[in-house]
Amino acid sequence: MENDGTKPDSQPRDPFAVDVEHALDALALAWGGEYDEIWLGHDGEWGAHRKDAGEDDVLTGATPDALNRVIRADQERRAALRLPGPGAEELREIFFPEDGDTL
User: Is 10 part of a structural domain of the chain?
Assistant: First the structure.
């Protein structure tokens, strides 16, 4: 049974604390096939490196959830670049507009 904080010599668990090992395991389970490194840096920033990306091409997020959202957006962008057929060009324009702005 988890401590509820009623015992004088104990502290309740912080409900907002991240279980780093479980978060890393969950991210690796979800994305380990595409990302060879997923980590929590000493600065508290979460990061991931895609297997086929350049050495300095790193995705980051302030929390495990933020990193997951960044990875998901990167995956969607990459999938759009591979889409054949009708609509593919429109998706490329959304992700890579000609004026140089990107999402």
Answer: no
> Computed from CA positions of residues 78, 29, 32, 59, in that sequence, does the dihedral angle turn out positive or negative?
positive
**Residue 36 maps to a domain:** yes
pLDDT tens-place string over residues 43-97: 999 999 999 989 899 999 999 999 999 999 999 988 877 766 656 667 677 777 7
Residue 69 corresponds to which amino acid? R
Tokens 């929590």 belong to 40
Per the structure, the complete domain to which residue 52 belongs is given by 20-93
pTM to 2 decimal places: 0.68
20-31 helix and 64-82 helix, angle to the nearest 10 degrees: 10
Q: 34-56 burial by CB neighbour count: b if 16+ within 10 A, else e?
A: ebeebebeeeeebbbbbeeeeee
Q: How many domains does the chain fold into?
A: 1
Strand ranges for 17-91 from DSSP E: 35-40, 46-50, 58-61
